[in-house]
From TrEMBL:
Coiled coil: none annotated. This is ABC transporter permease. GO terms for cellular component: plasma membrane. Belongs to the ABC-4 integral membrane protein family. Residues 416-611 form the MacB-like periplasmic core domain. Residues 251-369, 639-758 form the ABC3 transporter permease C-terminal domain. It comes from the Bacteria. One of its GO terms (molecular function) is transmembrane transporter activity. It is a multi-pass membrane protein. It is found in: Cell membrane. It comes from Actinomadura syzygii.
Amino acid sequence: MGRPVSAVWAASRAGVRRRRMQTGSIGLVVALATATLVFGLGLLSASHSMFDDAFAKARGAHAAADFDAARTTEAQVAATAHGSGVTAAAGPFRTVTLARPDGPSEVPMQSEGLTVAGRADPGGPVDRLSLTAGRWVRGPGEIVLRGKPMGPFRLGGKVTSPGRPELTVVGFAVSATGGVDGWVTPAQVAALRPDGFLMEYRFARAGDPAEVRRSLNAAAAGLPVRGYDSYMTAKREFEGRFNQLVPFITVFGILALTVSVFIIGNVVSGAVISGFRHIGVMKALGFTPGQVTSVYVGMVAVPTAAGCAVGLAVGHLLAGRMVANLSENFELPSAGGVSLPLEAAAGGGVLALAALAALVPALRAGRLPAVQAISAGTVSRRGRGRRVQRWLVRTRLPLPVGLGLGLPVARPARAAVTLAGLCLGVTAVTMGLGLHQTVTKIMTADTESRTSVRVGVDPRNPAGSMSADRLAATVRAQPGTAHVTASVQRPMRVPGLATGASAETYSGDYRPFLGDNLVRGRWFTGPGEVVPSEAFMRLQGLHVGDPLSVQVDGTRLTLKIVGAFSHPDTDRFMLDAASLPAAKGRPEPPLLLVIVKDGTDPAAYAAQLNKTGASAGLFAETAAPDLADRALFSGLFLVFSLIICTAAALGVLNSVLLGARERARDLGVLKAVGMPPRRVVLMMVTSMAALGVAGGAIGVPLGVLAHHGVVELTGDLLGSGMAAPWIHVYGWALLLLPACVGLAVAVLGAWPPAVRAAAVRTATVLRSE
């Protein structure tokens, strides 16, 4: 029993050593397929578990409750930690809201100010903070802010608030729990004159917002809660943003796996077919059909197993790194990676695919008679390839080009598989470039993204009573101003919405600020017209031209819907400020949005306005779109495109390598009659270049169609729709690059084996003659 097994193993090992390039190709393709599968599955699984994993690891709070220090004592608030249904609690932490300064702030502060809590350390039984930069606070005058350093907001920034000590930013931290915007030491918060207590709870029952509210009411035991933050809000926001990735990941994953299936089948079966002469020799030496089959399965098993192991490791690292980037981008403290069962399933699937691809031709090899196998391995096949080559040689094309263009026809099945791989590679690149443009347009489509400078006013300043028109006139007089509009958020009630809605009102020269995110209709042009979000339109089954009844400050109004903009929220409405009645009481100071003239530096403009508008209580700061999501999406597109193009190039390499071995006799004859090596290289590269051109011609339209389908599917899944400019992003300049990708991949993949074939000595090739 031992000798047949030893003979099979020896023959398999010799085959692996003899066909090093093919062995390496098999291993690399399997590694790419495995890494792609693990990577894609890891990201898809993360969409369901990332937030939960991060929340569990950070011991996030199901609810963070704010108690009024004027109506409760610290002992009373602390006693709620032992309330009904509470499984863990942290606090009470003293809190204070720092008012925004009169001038510009070095840290991001909302108009309502910055809520700060006194906390001794970032750990604890609930809501463990994760530092993203810097260090934790150690003494007076220091503060750690929520989030991460971004734009002008860096370590060393100053937090100033009228009548309170100045604080220096020494760190940034993220939390799976809402509630506060920054943390200082307990001693420091006492010096800031705190007015509240913060308690963070984990409950036995917190499966939905209603359960969180009921559990909090039971824990508070009648104490007045000034406000609270539920973890469900953060979870839904995360899931909404991550769902934007799911269609992209799914489509790219399918493309990458399809290419891998093609290439694995092509490479593995080609390795068997190219060894027909070796099969004949083995059978002549007495190998049984089962042993021959085992030899070729063993030849494939070695690089397949090695490639699968490498792919598992690379895919695990890539998925882990991308999940970590997603966590950072979504401001989660930590996240889980790919599960071991998923990795095992992915590796087993790729191994099964490779085994099937090897077994079918290996069984054929085992049944092949010795004489037929030897002749198949030494005699070039005749047929359509010969006829096409003769016709091409008679044309005015150079001889190497004519012969090269005829090579794919001799092996139509192999050429079709190679062409399919190239098409998918071009499709992936085309779609990736289009998605990059789409994401960029989405990130820069809203009003804020078109704004150069934001100008606010301190509500405590007498200028806060100035009208929006007067404030706009003050800013418009500033040199370098091109367009100014005043934006105010007004709460309103809309039939069909259980919660309140937000009316974004604009006055002045607002047309240049309106983005290109319209899904249907047009923007409002005057009073009485409203543009809701597309999500609201779909929820209510409304159409452009329908009337919409709203209630603002007790006044009922009827507005006309003239368009809908892309957004997943159902409670957003944009309209002219004159459409609504004047606000009761003291109106909220408007936010002025400014577009500066060409050649004007926004930073210098803001600095000058801070000087000239100080007496009026104005403060200005530059605005810039948040492009973090664009970098995240573009990174995914790049990774998948590189994987798919690399797999396609390996398919080309394998096809040229097999073609060179099958036509070794023809190449030897050509070299014997005087064809120089460079013309041999040109002939073989031309054979694949033709497929590359065809792949570009077919793949580019497929990529455009795939892009349109994915973008529209994403809009439907989110319920937000997609604006036409986000879908139709392709121009001739953008299509030129992917059109050339097929040719470039084909030439790069064909070059190494073509050079190797051209370097083989003529006598060596023709020694069997």
